[in-house]
Amino acid sequence: MSPFRPLHDAWTVRSASGDVRAPATVPGCVHTDLLAAGLIPDPYLDDNETHLAWIGRTEWRYETEFSWDGTGHEHVDLVCQGLDTVAAVELNGVRVGESANMHRSYRFDVRHALRTGSNRLAVTFGSALEYAERLREELGHRPGAYTQPYNFIRKMACNFGWDWGPTLITAGIWRPIGLHEWSGARIAEVRPLVTVEDGTARVDVHVRVEKTGAAEVSATIEGVTARAVIPEDGEEAVLTLEVPDPRLWWPRGYGEQPLYELEVTAGEDVWRREIGLREVRLRTEDGAFTLAVNGVEVFVRGVNWIPDDCFPTRVGRDRYAARLAQACETNVNLVRVWGGGLYESEDFYDLCDRLGLMVWQDFPFACAAYPEEDPIGAEVEAEAREQVARLSAHPSLVLWCGNNENIEGYADWGWQEPLQGRSWGGGFYLETLPRVVAELDPTRPYWPGSPYSGSMDLPPNDPARGTMHIWDVWNERDYTVYRDYRPRMAAEFGFQGPAAYATIRRAISDEPLLPDSRGLLHHQKAVDGNLKLAAGLKPHFPVPGTFDDWHYLTQVNQARAIQLGVEHFRALWPHCAGSVVWQLNDCWPVTSWSAVDGDGRRKPLFHALRRAYADRLLTVQPRDGGLALVAVNDTARPWRASARAVRHGFDGTALAAQDLALDVPPRAVLTLPLAAPVTEPGDPASELIAAAITGPSGGDPAVARALWFFAPDRDLRLPEPRYDTAAEAAPGGLRLTVTARTLLRDLAVFPDRLDPEAEVGDQLVTLLPGERAEFLIDTAGLDEEALVRVPVLRCVNDVVARGSAAAWTEERRERSDQSDEGRRRLQSDRAASTEWRQ
Ligand code: BMA
């Protein structure tokens, strides 16, 4: 069997008119090619996006030459693992194939067009936007949250712009392309479907073979082989292998991730993959939405994943590895691949298999009604069949979900009238996709959409059933409202915060830089995003007076909001079986709901999330008109410890204390009411409760202490912050020790303000007088004087104790002219661009 021969060299790209030409990288896309050739500015900087819209309306032709010497195989196929999107493929002037679906791969027989010697391969990409507009014209309008017609083309939806992403409509050969020559038999598809029963794992290996005559197929695991012969007129065999006493694959936090090599042969062809042995179920009785792996019910500590770059070919294994490692650092056990993005590449799922990260995979449909007519209908069926089969080998994949918010949109967002009876995608989510999953991979649960309550007769976003998305918080209500919800699965909830300072500075050249300066507003895509940030701050903090205060406080508020939500949902286990935070990552530098920004920098939310998602969590929650200490034990061992809750004055004095004995069974939650002396403050403005583990052998560094303040920060009498600092060299960087002389609320150091490469290991630490915190910074040689001053080292006291308004007035006066101009320009930009989701 001759291997796949990549054809990745010597490509060029040119516009149909021939005006624009550049060398091309394959796999790649037109934007990155033009950027590399110096023909366009970086689309991620300032408002360059706006000037590059023409690229998405242009036809692009990719061409290369290669030589072929005729190897005498029976078959020569041109394999295109991914074409983005409206493509015509020609070999030596002969049209050998076409495509209009980024989510599929193609194999074109090219024997008739191939020549011995030099060959010319060309792929012409029509404008995806114009294709979608034409189809919309033809099939009739379908409503959605955005005006761009991404629902009329099978292409990554967020490429058309989203409330965190720019509109950069790509074209290109986005996955490997090459020749595959073969004779006899070729393994076209392998679906290793795993079930576990009575201590034995059974792998039903479904093998589909393309071949000329009969073919012998085999499958081997752990030295045990099963064989079969597929007759001449057949194409599939099922080989069953049993693994007694299997080492089961578990999600992280539940056990190991052993992988077994599975080898499949058909004639000369060999397919090898590491698979995991495990079983997954979705329990939905009485409205529940609980995943169970190997019979163990799991609380989902999740994050939503969006494409990590608008140009997905830039996301290789290293980038995935870095981002998923960050997910693990925040103690996440599940990543939801959201429906406005992609079926990610093999590397993504392979890394998740190894890390024990469960994957909830949305089919790529989001926030719009989708036409079910052909060509979309046929494309969806073909794409789903390919992807369900492709991903069936990955133990990490635990759930297929039909779409993001389309059932909710149909039921609740006023779509039915404008649809005038036209199809909206319901047939996909309720018929096509469940049928394909049931046929090709019945071992995986399928759920029609998120949110969805289990029946089209029920409101899709009913907290009592199925999955729920909570967006009234952020859009219009304070984050403490999370506590009013008792969802079975909080599949989306999020709160915005700006990107790290160094990221903003790299991407935006505004001078002065203001929350509403032109560039920063361009990198804020949410409807009224900055107004919502301000509205979200208002109940908690004084109005920030400077850009630096705004930046810090909005980041802190984002972290506080999500921490509160996560702790509340975890405390509801097992009624609530998971929280999936919107969102882990970004695709470019932007103000968004992410924990990690578009340059990969951790935002303060990241550190809050790590604490809130720790295996063991202590949290103070309102219960029965009072307060309770809730201990969440998401480990397999009982948690027996002593804890103490103390009501302190801000000067550190202990005003009341209560000792509590924790005995929390494995994977359970214990709620212990706190007594009135602890919960009733003498002065709500200058007291707090701190609850921590005290024994058996002192505190537990893995469990963060729980804090409760009796009033929002703006109403607290936080002291003027005083502390001592010491910086010393540490391996790879330096250690900054801060010793509090007063209470310090949400102390954080932002070393990226001094050196964009510098990162710190922790942020948002609250200290009582006399306590100390250590911050490990991964970069040496920072200006140590600047390191310990605002805005690099800072806490909430800086703003609350000093009152921000005076500084604000001063800075506003100086800067108002520029920012008024910025606002005017932005309004005209907005009017000219997409009408964003309301
Ligand atoms: C949900 C998501 C995304 C969106 C987010 C923030 O609707 O599914 O579409 O980016 O909210 O508005």
From TrEMBL:
Residues 11-175 form the Beta-mannosidase-like galactose-binding domain. InterPro entries: Beta-gal/glucu_dom_sf, Beta-mannosidase-like_N2, Beta-mannosidase_GH2, Galactose-bd-like_sf, GH, Glyco_hydro_2_cat, Ig-like_fold, Ig-like_GH2. One of its GO terms (cellular component) is lysosome. The keyword Hydrolase applies. It catalyses: Hydrolysis of terminal, non-reducing beta-D-mannose residues in beta-D-mannosides. Residues 194-278 form the Glycoside hydrolase family 2 immunoglobulin-like beta-sandwich domain. The keyword DNA-binding does not apply. Its EC number is 3.2.1.25. One of its GO terms (molecular function) is beta-mannosidase activity. Pfam families: Glyco_hydro_2, Glyco_hydro_2_C, Glyco_hydro_2_N2. Its main location: other. Residues 809-828 have a biased composition (Basic and acidic residues). One of its GO terms (biological process) is carbohydrate metabolic process. It comes from the Bacteria. Belongs to the glycosyl hydrolase 2 family. This is beta-mannosidase. It comes from Nonomuraea jabiensis.
